């Protein structure tokens, strides 16, 4: 073990695969997948020729383009491309890319050519794991990460074998070689990943440049001008030595390190505020701590009896059957087995109580019969409960329900589904350490992990008491379900549901989290993201109230990674080229000054900052004369690599590749049908259909999460849209996405926002309008809408 090698069982196959690739492909000319001939310099140079030096800037996904680019490549080069993609995918945790998706990516390339060696089963299963939580840039710039790996492969293979071997063993020489390659547009991610995969005992598993810079700024002391990568490596080793465990892994994303070099996320800050609120309403010593320590003492008695050869089964049965720390079904499962096979149970419990923690938990799981505690939730709740006999204050009991709930509201790391119990429990202990730290930042001092577990349990599961106001009850329920909102302070209300927190605008937020915050299906959001990144120009169409602009702004900020790199402009009938691109404007001295418009301004910013993505949002695109507004820039929308001479300044101008355009159009405006074919050809169009598409699920999802008593409103709108039977007049969800929504507000919105628009669309159809009053719709909706209680189920 070392300060930088991830010690978990799920990480070991990753390091073994990386070592196999190093030995077979980098030091030898063998295929990673077949161990036969392959991975030659000639194969790598073919990929340089066919992919790196022949970029495909047209439409299509990365995989579709790669297949096309490899169409004329030798079969051995196609094999190498698949194996390099495999290495690229090794680092990402399944939260970013599932193992199934990783395997599909590799096989998609292999299946384009007969004669390629298939992905071996053992290497394929390795892809179910990962080492880092890759951000959006990992997927956004996959073409660049792949290109960097190809160039690194060729750079290494061009070295004589003895030099190549030395470089792969020398941190300084490896960094020097990789620093000669182009790592722009996300390439740094792959460079940092490759450093760790090739020398895991030197370089930490860190693929973020900003994180490296922050770590160096806090702990760096080097004066020799060493590269940043080497400084971070030295810091990890030094922190391990300072902790008195030089051979132990230093996880800079856990306490006590994480919040020394980074600030807690908004989600954790909100959790800290709730810890403060609940700490004033629960007595940890008497309500949480005392009975757990008493239970630990009873477990110690059972343990002493078993290890001493005395009667232990009666005490075990009494203990697990009366505690609330273990699910009762799991307790009965354990007792039934112990009664039927007491000798086997004794051996299993003896190991649980005498081995080190990891060996004890995994040994317990391995020793059980297949039909006993076969679900991790039940098994680990039992084993962690019984392990409290060893050290309850450092290793408190784990339960799946509240841990999963807290991970959901904070975005904390979730171990891989196939991770062993020891790894899941270690992640839980790391979570408790962060709970202790964030609670302290909010004025709550916890003595140990047992206190942290008690406060966490109370905060996530404590039932409302009579002393809680309705506002407090609603705020607690809101945070537990969505992670939004902070404790009420006097008359202060919780944060509005649709106001994005700054953390949600960062690239660290996963696509699933973004989709959940928008109440949209992840697949729909993923499709939009892929279209935006592939075509670079996308238009959202839909009726007023379907959330086009809101989604566009949130998605743009997420893709850009910073809302400051997003610029919004709204077109109107008098908007012109001079307003949008550049033109002369009156100056204070009575003359005219040439000024750039928003497109030129944001394009220049993007060109000066190629390592980041910029987004220009053009709202109400079809309200302007689009051809007049864009002028000669229509050409650049299709040919990003070219330039044109601007009308007024006469300067050469181009649209940088890192500038994306998202437009919105109102489908109810008939002028959308008049868009010329040149515009349609240059944009992809995404329809925000409030009747049949994913947008139809936004309001039901929002009401279920925020206003479950008003779920009938969503049913009323479904009924109304069915009666209207006109996609251009369909009612969108945005009218009702209000934090302060209640029955009176619903009636006001319907009377003054919804019905006036419907009257305009349904002129001459009084029979339909008569059936669209809220009173007419409410009985149907009230019948359709029912409250459903949550079933906690087994732990």
Computed over alpha carbons, the radius of gyration is 30 Å
Q: Count of helices? A: 39
Poorly predicted segments: 490-507, 670-674, 779-795
Characterize the main sheet.
Answer: 5 strands, parallel
Give the overall average pLDDT.
86
Major beta sheet, strand line-up: 2-5-8-1-9
Principal-axis shape equals: globular
- First-to-last CA distance: 33 Å
> Per DSSP, what share of the residues sits in E-state strands of 2 or more residues?
5-15%
How many distinct domains?
4
GO molecular function: ATP binding; ATP hydrolysis activity
Protein name: AAA family ATPase
Domain AAA+ ATPase: 534-689
InterPro entries: AAA+_ATPase (IPR003593), ATPase_dyneun-rel_AAA (IPR011704), Methyl-DNA_Rec/Restrict_Enz (IPR052934), P-loop_NTPase (IPR027417)
Write the layout of secondary structure elements.
Elements: H1 12-26, H2 41-52, H3 62-69, H4 75-90, H5 99-110, H6 121-126, H7 136-140, H8 142-157, H9 161-169, H10 171-178, H11 187-198, H12 209-219, H13 228-242, H14 258-261, H15 266-279, H16 284-307, H17 313-322, H18 328-340, H19 342-354, H20 357-367, H21 376-386, H22 388-391, H23 400-410, H24 421-441, H25 449-461, H26 470-482, H27 511-518, H28 522-535, E1 537-542, H29 548-560, E2 566-570, H30 577-580, E3 582-586, E4 592-596, H31 598-608, E5 614-619, H32 626-630, H33 633-638, E6 644-645, E7 652-653, E8 659-666, H34 677-682, E9 684-688, H35 698-706, H36 712-724, H37 743-761, H38 766-770, H39 774-784
Parallel strand pairs: 1-8, 1-9, 2-5, 5-8
Antiparallel strand pairs: 3-4, 6-7
Helix pairs in contact: 2-4, 2-8, 4-5, 4-8, 8-11, 9-10, 12-13, 15-24, 15-25, 16-17, 16-25, 17-18, 18-19, 18-21, 19-20, 23-25, 23-26, 24-25, 27-28, 36-39
């Amino acid at each position: 073990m070392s300060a930088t090698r991830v010690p978990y069982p799920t990480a070991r196959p990753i390091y073994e695969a990386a070592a196999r690739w190093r030995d077979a492909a980098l030091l030898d000319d063998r295929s990673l997948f077949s161990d036969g001939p392959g991975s030659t310099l000639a194969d790598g140079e073919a990929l340089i020729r066919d992919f790196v030096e022949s970029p495909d800037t047209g439409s299509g996904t990365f995989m579709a383009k790669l297949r096309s680019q490899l169409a004329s490549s030798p079969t051995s080069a196609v094999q190498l491309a698949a194996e390099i993609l495999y290495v690229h995918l090794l680092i990402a945790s399944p939260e970013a890319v599932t193992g199934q998706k990783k395997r599909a990516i590799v096989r998609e390339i292999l299946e384009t050519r007969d004669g390629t060696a298939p992905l071996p089963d053992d290497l394929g299963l390795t892809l179910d794991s990962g080492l880092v939580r890759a951000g959006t840039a990992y997927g956004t710039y996959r073409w660049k990460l792949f290109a960097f790996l190809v160039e690194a492969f060729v750079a290494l293979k061009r070295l004589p074998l003895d030099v190549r071997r030395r470089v792969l063993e020398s941190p300084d020489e490896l960094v020097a070689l990789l620093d000669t390659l182009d790592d722009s547009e996300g390439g740094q991610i792959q460079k940092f990943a490759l450093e760790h995969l090739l020398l895991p005992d030197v370089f930490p598993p860190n693929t973020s440049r900003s994180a490296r810079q922050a770590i160096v700024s806090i702990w760096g002391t080097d004066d020799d001008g060493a590269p940043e990568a080497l400084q971070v490596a030295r810091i990890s080793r030094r922190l391990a030595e300072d902790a008195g465990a030089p051979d132990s892994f230093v996880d800079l994303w856990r306490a006590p390190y994480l919040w020394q070099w980074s600030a807690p996320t908004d989600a954790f800050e909100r959790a800290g505020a709730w810890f403060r609120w609940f700490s004033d309403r629960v007595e940890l010593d008497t309500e949480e701590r005392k009975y757990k320590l008493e239970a630990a003492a009873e477990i110690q008695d059972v343990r002493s009896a078993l290890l001493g050869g005395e009667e232990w089964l009666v005490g075990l049965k009494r203990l697990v059957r009366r505690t609330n720390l273990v699910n009762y079904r799991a307790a009965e499962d354990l007792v039934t087995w112990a009664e039927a096979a007491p000798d086997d149970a004794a051996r299993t419990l003896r190991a649980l109580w005498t081995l080190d923690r990891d060996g004890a938990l995994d040994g317990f799981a391995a020793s059980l019969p297949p039909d006993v505690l076969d679900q991790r939730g039940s098994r680990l709740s039992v084993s962690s409960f019984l392990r409290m006999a060893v050290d309850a204050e450092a290793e408190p009991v784990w339960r799946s329900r509240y841990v999963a709930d807290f991970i959901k509201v904070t975005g904390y790391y979730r171990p891989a589904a196939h991770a062993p119990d020891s790894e899941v429990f270690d992640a839980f202990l790391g979570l408790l350490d962060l709970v202790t730290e964030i609670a302290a930042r909010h004025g709550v001092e916890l003595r140990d992990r047992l206190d942290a577990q008690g406060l966490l349990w109370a905060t996530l599961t404590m039932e409302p008491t009579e002393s809680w106001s309705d506002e407090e009850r609603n705020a607690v329920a809101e945070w537990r379900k969505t992670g939004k909102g902070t404790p009420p302070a006097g008359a202060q209300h919780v944060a509005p549901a649709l106001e994005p927190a700054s953390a949600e605008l960062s690239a660290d937020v996963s696509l699933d989290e973004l989709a959940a915050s928008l109440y949209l299906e992840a697949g729909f959001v993923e499709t939009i993201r892929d279209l935006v990144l592939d075509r670079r120009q996308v238009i959202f169409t839909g009726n007023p109230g379907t959330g086009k602009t809101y989604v566009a702004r949130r998605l743009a900020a997420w893709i850009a990674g910073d809302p400051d790199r997003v610029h919004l402009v709204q077109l109107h009938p008098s908007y012109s080229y001079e307003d949008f691109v550049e033109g002369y404007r009156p100056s204070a001295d009575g003359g005219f000054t040439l000024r750039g418009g928003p497109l030129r301004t944001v394009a220049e910013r993007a060109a000066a900052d190629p390592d980041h993505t910029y987004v220009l949002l053009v709202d109400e695109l079809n309200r302007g004369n689009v051809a007049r507004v864009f002028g000669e820039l229509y050409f650049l929308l299709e040919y990003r690599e070219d330039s044109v001479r601007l009308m007024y300044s006469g300067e050469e101008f181009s649209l940088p590749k890192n500038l994306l355009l998202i437009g919105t159009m109102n489908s109810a405006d008939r002028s959308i049908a008049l868009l010329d074919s040149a515009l349609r050809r240059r944009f992809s169009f995404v329809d925000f259909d409030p009747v049949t598409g994913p947008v139809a699920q936004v309001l039901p999802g929002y009401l279920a999460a925020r206003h479950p008593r008003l779920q009938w409103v969503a049913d009323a709108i479904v009924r109304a849209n069915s009666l209207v039977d006109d996609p251009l007049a369909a009612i969108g969800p945005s009218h009702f996405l209000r934090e302060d929504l209640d029955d009176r507000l619903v009636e006001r919105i319907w009377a003054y926002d919804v019905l006036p628009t419907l009257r305009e669309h349904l002129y001459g159809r009084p029979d339909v309008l008569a059936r669209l009053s809220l009173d007419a719709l409410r009985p149907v909706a009230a019948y359709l809408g029912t409250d459903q209680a949550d079933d906690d189920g087994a732990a």
